[in-house]
Amino acid sequence: MGKKIFRSVQKTLLVKYMTDTGAARVRLGVLIGFAAIMIAASPGHAIQGIEEAAASISSPEDVASFFAQEFTYEMTFPDRAHSPEEIMESRTGDCEDFAILASAMLTRMGVENQVVVIKFAGLRVAHAICIWRNRGGTYDFISSQEFYRSGQKTVEAAIKKFYPDCSATAVIDPRTYAARRGSGMAGAKSYVGAGLMADLDPRRLVDL
Q1: How do 146-149 and 139-143 pair as beta strands?
Q2: How far apart are CA 195 and CA 34, in angstroms?
Q3: Residue 179 parent element (H or E)
Q4: pLDDT tens digits, residue range 92-145?
Q5: What is residue 64's predicted lDDT score, i.e. its pLDDT?
Q6: Which of 55, 100, 148, 186 is the 20 to 30 Å CA partner of 94?
């Protein structure tokens, strides 16, 4: 069995883990841990460094294509932020992981960018994207493994176009975020949801 099969099993178990209680939840936790071990032990892609990957990609749009072809979207439990190197090695990630890795790759490609955490109105849920200004002067961004062209001339307008229910945002430093917030988006969700944006070390949205 390969990594993709074990990841599929792990994803199914995680969904059930979130709803079960008691002894069943404990057993599922053990199975999830076993699936993680098997994923790590299974043969996969040869590890490619960030510098090598960035050098082989010709445009920001291709970064999203690279993620879609080479990576698997996967939420881990417990959730935590990962460094770009960890994401490259595991070939898995959730929205914050892909935003952090996209930022690292775009920076190496000479593209100024920022990672933005988005909070949604009425929900204790947050999402992360990596956004930059293209050569035409409008904003594009990567959300998980997908590329979006907004056609908007400000970061705020670009976010509002695709996330009209956005109620708050925070710009994070991807170089230190994983180290400071080991709890990942689980922590970000609780803080943003509570309105304590300062704990996310936010900066005002800046038009690049």
Answers
A1: antiparallel
A2: 37
A3: helix 174-180
A4: 899 999 999 999 999 999 999 999 999 888 887 789 999 999 999 999 999 999
A5: 94
A6: 55
Classified by CATH at the fold level, domain 48-200 comes out as: C8orf32 fold (3.10.620)
Residue pLDDT, tens place only, 138-149: 999 999 999 999
Residue 184's pLDDT band (cuts 50, 70, 90): very low
Q: Which pTM does this prediction carry? A: 0.68
DSSP 183: T
Burial environment of residue 68 by CB neighbours within 10 A (0 to 12, 13 to 18, 19 or more): middle
Distance, in Å, from the CA atom of 156 to the CA atom of 207, rounded to the nearest integer, reads 8
Listed by start position, the domains of the chain span 1-44, 48-200
Residues 6+ away with beta carbon under 8 Å from 22:
none
Strand bridging mode 72-73 / 92-93: parallel
Tell me 197's DSSP state. G
Two structure tokens written together for 126 = 């947050």
**Residue of 141, 115, 139 whose CA lies nearest to 126:** 115
